[in-house]
Amino acid sequence: MGLFNRKNNESAVATATLPVDPALAGLTGDYNIDPAHSSIGFTVRHAMVTNVRGTFAEHEGALKLDGSNPGASTASIDVKIASIDTGIGDRDGHLRSGDFFDAEQFPLMTFRSTEAAQLGGDKYRITGDLTIKDVTKPLSIDLEFNGTATDVYGNERVGFEGSAEILRSEWGLTWNAALETGGVMVSDKVKLNFDISAIKNAS
Questions:
Q1: 48 Cβ contact list (under 8 Å, min separation 6)
Q2: Between residues 32 and 46, which one has the greater pLDDT?
Q3: Which of 92, 116, 172, 194 could form a disulfide with 4 if both were Cys (CB 3.0 to 4.6 A apart)?
Q4: Would you state the pLDDT for residue 120?
Q5: Residue 62 parent element (H or E)
Q6: What is the pLDDT of residues 127-161, one digit of tens each?
C-alpha cells in the first residue's frame, strides 16, 4: 500500500507517480503522534567497544496524510531535550549540559519534512530539516509503514518505524575525550530510531 510518490532512482530528474490506491482515501487526514505509544531514541558507540542507547521521553508531532496525492503528505516532530534518558542520571545530566545539547538554551530538537518517496513495498524515505541547538541540516529517514488499526477506544491509528544515521559533529555536538588505548569516548556517528503511532483527528 503506497503512501508516497515513488522516486525514479535511475534519473535524478524524472519522478514516477504510483497509481493512487483507492484504499488510501480512508487514510487522508491529520494525525497527532501518540507519545504514550511512540518512541524516539538513539544508539551511539561508547569507548569504542559497546553501545549506549537512550530515548527522549517527551515529544509531540503531527502527520498530514493525503491519500489522493500521497507525495503531499508531511510530518513534523518536536522533541524535548531535557527528557533524554539513558538510564544513568549523571550521564543524562552531562548530555543536557553545554558540552552536548545545552538543553537550557536550546530546549527542543525539531524535524520538519520537505519530501517523501517510496522505496518499494511499504518502505519509504522522508526527507526534511533536522534542527539541533542552532544548527539546521537536511536529514533522510528510512521508514516502514506498519499499517492501520482501530484501537479499543475507537481511535484510527497508523504506524511507522524507521531509522537514520547522523554525524553529531555536523550539528555542533563535538565534545569528546581521548582513550588511553586509542580512539575516543563517544563516536561521531549516531543512529536515530523512530517507532511512531499516530491517531487520526476527528473530522
A1: 179, 181, 182, 183, 184, 187
A2: 32
A3: 116
A4: 74
A5: strand 59-65
A6: 999 999 999 999 999 999 898 999 999 999 999 99
Give the integer Cα–Cα distance in Å for 23 and 2.
10
Give the H/E segment covering residue 94: helix 89-96
Phi-psi region of 102 (alpha: psi -120 to 50; beta: other; left: phi over 0): left
Confidence label for 203 from pLDDT (cuts 50, 70 and 90): low
Biggest alpha carbon–alpha carbon distance for the chain = 61
Residue 42 neighbours by CB under 8 Å, 6+ apart = 53, 54, 55, 190, 191, 192, 193
For the ranges 10-14, 17-21, 128-132, the one whose mean pLDDT is highest? 128-132
Is-contact 82 55, C-beta < 8 A? no
CA 58 to chain centre: 14
DSSP assigned state of 178:
B
Backbone angles phi, psi at 70, to 5 degrees: -55, -30
For the question of whether the overall pTM of this predicted structure is more than 0.90, the answer is no
pLDDT of 20 reads: 53
For the chain, counts of helices (H) and of strands (E):
1, 11
CA-CA-CA-CA dihedral for 7, 12, 14, 16, to nearest 10: -10
